[in-house]
Amino acid sequence: MGTYAIDLQTLSIGLLAVRIVIGFIMAAHGAQKLLGWWGGYGLRGTGQFFEQLGFQPGPAFAAAASVSEIVSGLLVAFGFLGPIGPALMVSVMIVAALTVHMGKGLFAPKGIELPLLYGAAAFGLALTGFGEYSVDALLGFAGRWSAGFTWIVLVLGAAGGFLNLALRRRPAVIAGA
Fold first, then answer.
1. Contact status, residue 134 vs residue 86, Cβ threshold 8 Å
2. Cα 20 to Cα 22: distance, rounded to the nearest angstrom
3. How far apart are CA 81 and CA 66, in angstroms?
4. Do 80 and 73 form a contact (C-beta atoms < 8 A)?
5. What are the Cα distances from residue 29, in Å, to 35, 74, 137, 146, 177?
6. How many whole angstroms separate alpha carbon 154 and alpha carbon 111?
7. pTM for the predicted model, two decimal places
8. CA distance 131 to 12
9. Which regions of the chain are under pLDDT 70?
């Protein structure tokens, strides 16, 4: 099945490394949007960008996206609440991929590379679990998330992303502009 026998401790260290990188960078990405940290535009600038994308009111959609990125990132980084954080991350990455990055090629900075990587990592973490170095394991929640529950939560996360897209209204093209 793999290149070596599965060792729970080694697997858990690998999951921890992935969770920390994916989770904290996603949370920081949300903080850029919400708070303007690390070169971000803050809620006002992000809200204006969301309005250009057709999300009205822009600040409300920007706040929802920002908070979802921060919460999902922190849940993933700490390994807390099983598939809920990954499902939130999948949701916001569906919206980002299809509104901002689609049709601009594969590779960053404009292509779908980053939302695809975040979404795939979140999806994979939801299916594998967070490992023994997680808050879920510390609290005794690890192993309690059934496969059925995980799939339901992931489907709801994806549905949330597509519902968000359905609420989008493409901006009218201004004549002569």
1. no
2. 6
3. 19
4. no
5. 10, 11, 27, 30, 32
6. 24
7. 0.91
8. 4
9. 1-3, 171-177
